[in-house]
Amino acid sequence: MRRVLRPALLLALVAAACNLQQGTPTPLPTPDAPAVEFLSPVNGSNVFEGTDLTVELVARDAGAGVARVELLVDDVSHQEGSPVDSDVVPVFTVTMNWLAAGVGRHSLSAIAYRADGTASPATVISIQVVARE
User: Fold this and answer.
1) Using the 8-state DSSP alphabet, how is residue 89 labeled?
2) Does a structural domain hold residue 13?
3) Which of 16, 42, 50, 63 could join 32 in a cystine, given CB atoms 3.0 to 4.6 angstroms apart?
4) What pLDDT, in 10s, does the model give residues 118-127?
C-alpha cells in the first residue's frame, strides 16, 4: 500500500524545515557603519618606482561621524589622518602619500574609524609598481 502525504502536511513539513538553522548565523552588516573610498589613485594603476604617490580618500559616517582614517600598504599601517576643525565629522576628505617602493603589485587599504573605535570595512585597491627604464 502506498502512502500519500496530504498537501497540508507536506506544506507544514517544508515550512518547519525552513526554520532550522545550523551553526552560527551570519551577522548582518551595520548599515550605519563608517565607509571609506579611494578618490585617487584608481584601482589597478601603474606607477613608477620612486614616485611620491598621492592618495586621496573620503570617509563618511552620517551617524557618529569619522574621527580618523588609516592607510595601510600591503597590510601594514602606513599613515593616519584626523579632522582638523573638529574631533569627528560626517564627511572627511584626506590626502596622504606613499613613496612607491618595490617593483610588483601592492595593496593599499583604507579604514575609517569613529571616536569609539568602530571601524569601517577595509576598502582595498591594487597598485602595480614598475621599474623606471
Assistant:
1) B
2) no
3) 63
4) 999 999 999 9
